Amino acid sequence: TRPINLSNAKPGTMVIKNEADAIPFPIGINVLRLQPANITLLIDTLVQKDLPIHPVIEGEPAAGYELGSIKLRPEKLTVSGPKNILESQLALKTYVINLDGLDHSTTLQVQLNLSPEILRLIGETVVSVDISVKERMLTKTVRGIPVNVRAADTPVTAVPGTVTVEAEIPENLIRDTPELAMLFRASASAKDIKNSRQVNVTVAGVNVPNHVPIKIVSVKPEKVSLRILKRSKKKKSKKQ
Fold first, then answer.
1. Cα 98 to Cα 177: distance, rounded to the nearest angstrom
2. Measured distance CA(69)–CA(144) in Å, rounded
3. Where are the domains of the chain?
4. Which CATH superfamily is domain 46-135 in?
5. How much is the pTM?
6. Whether the Cβ atoms of residue 198 and residue 147 lie closer than 8 Å to each other
7. 206: Cβ–Cβ under 8 A, 6 or more apart, which residues?
8. Class of domain 137-228
9. Using one digit for the tens of pLDDT, what is the confidence trace for 82-135?
């Protein structure tokens, strides 16, 4: 073996001559020639760098769904290596993650797609990828939702009797519902009402299994007039 002293080495190219006395041989052996005559070393500064990991995705989730978020664990790696390699490395990337037809959230184990230089430094590396897929929401204006009068002690009618709602509804639910007004319940409370007056209208979306909740954006009108209906008096029959 040829020992080399690197205690005073500096970044750059270092040429070391292979002289006859540089390599120890047993007594009685005369060195006539050494090949190669020189050893060339490329000395570089050892650095440490945090490299973010970027997911590479392709494809689209199933109809009516969209990508909510994608999170990597870990989100970055700390890599130690030669400065000339790491200073030009801005980030690490995964192999392609295919989203085609995905209709639910999932967690995958994905390898990093590394250059040969980085692969030699850190080896094959796997990260966890949390993929959140959600239903695509569409904003719709739905008219003709009947107002149900609650807690009435006396006959009461609501004027107007229907309201219009603007809401965010899952796209798949819109496709599967023949009449969107069926997805809403509107009500007005007549509790303790003695005279006709205006009250607030409460509108809620119907909870449909396997779908995210409907989000109410606005209700028009926000108030309805509750009008007390007069009871019709029964005529007394004359006794014969």
1. 31
2. 36
3. 13-43, 46-135, 137-228
4. YbbR-like domain (2.170.120.40)
5. 0.72
6. no
7. 182, 183, 184, 185, 214
8. mainly beta
9. 998 999 999 999 999 999 999 999 999 999 999 999 999 999 999 999 999 999
